[in-house]
Amino acid sequence: MLLLGLLGQCLAGIPGNYLAHLLTEYENDILGRANTLGRAEEAVEEEEVVPGEVGHPVEMNSWDANLKLGQVAGVAVDQDDDPLVFHRCSVVWDGTSFNADQTLAKKVLITNNTILKIDQDNGMIKSGMGAGMFYMPHGITVDPDNNIWVTDVGLHQVMKFPAGSDKPSLTLGVEFVPGNDKEHFCKPTAVAVSKSGIVYIADGYCNQRVVVYDNTGRYITEIKGDWAVVHSIVLFEDSDTICIADREGQKVSCVSAGLTHPQFRGKPVLEIKNTGRVFGLAGRGSALVATTGTPNPRGITMDLELEGTVVDEWGKGLVNPHQMAMSREGDTIYVSEIGPNRIRKFMVVAPEDNIFTQETY
């Protein structure tokens, strides 16, 4: 049975760590809001994960058979539930692409469409844009207002395209100039945007930070952590939490996003270690799904209610997964691959009552 739900609703507090005590004290006593994240420690210990009840992504083989793509750096899902791919066409990122100072060794403007809208049913291209604009595409996301956000690690920039437009309305970062301040990025990798327009940018390869802006592009702050490569981020807005894929650190770190209570922004919520090299993240409710790369490429599903316990593995046919995205209802997952240059589609098969649909958050 194909379901429309990848998990419950809220992640409103933090289980069993330092921040949980802070939240309990401040939110109960001062802010007057109950700390409701997750189950109590006793309940977590008694919880038994039964295989087959969590929902399992199953690949739709040959769905992308008619697509001819370059390195597929990123994938997102728009408000029509169609996937958008961000690919590099004929340009390849390899060991010779960047100089020691993180600038491009050779500036090759991609003249073909880099952003392609793909039909969710038949895998055919519906439209394209982005020709003559990018040098080394990386991340793509679609915000709640259907604006498209992309990162280019060669330009060291982030761009916002309004819904229906092929021209950016906002550009952050300085063209071709890497840096580590309010105006500069160094190979930014991914973007997450809240319903209120708060923008989180993973400034991942050089600076190991997440930079926060408002909806006009005004710098607010940055979040730092013990991270090696901040390769992907996902925002759980209902719980005011953002999770970070630390690729080379082989872990996922979840911290307070600070949407409701800015004083908690960046405070640790949960750290999931020994995940392997986590490249992509997506999530809904309490389900956090990830793709890992060599030496063990695969997809994994983690339950944030169970403190990040891995409850399922899938996608054993993946070769070199990079980024990923989830449909609006959570019943479809897309994974981009680099070598082979593909976009893979997985349908979530699950019984009606499972962790992807329980409204426990």
Helices and strands in order:
Blueprint: H1 18-30, H2 41-46, E1 56-59, E2 72-77, E3 83-87, E4 115-118, E5 125-129, E6 137-142, E7 148-152, E8 157-161, E9 170-172, E10 190-193, E11 199-203, E12 209-213, E13 219-224, E14 230-236, E15 241-246, E16 251-256, E17 268-273, E18 278-284, E19 287-292, E20 298-303, E21 309-314, E22 321-326, E23 332-337, E24 342-349
Antiparallel strand pairs: 1-24, 2-3, 3-4, 4-5, 6-7, 7-8, 8-9, 10-11, 11-12, 12-13, 14-15, 15-16, 16-17, 18-19, 19-20, 20-21, 22-23, 23-24
Count of β-strands = 24
Order of helices and strands: HHEEEEEEEEEEEEEEEEEEEEEEEE
Total count of domains: 1
Shape: globular
Query: Which CATH architecture would you pick?
Result: 6 Propeller
What is the oligomer described by this structure? single chain
- CATH fold-level label: Neuraminidase
Q: Given this structure, which CATH class is correct?
A: Mainly Beta
Largest sheet: 4 strands, antiparallel
The helix fraction, in percent, is under 10%
Low-confidence runs of at least 5 consecutive residues? 1-52
Lateral strand order in the biggest sheet? 1-24-23-22
Strand content: 35-45%
Structural class: mainly beta
pLDDT averaged over residues = 87
Radius of gyration: 19 Å
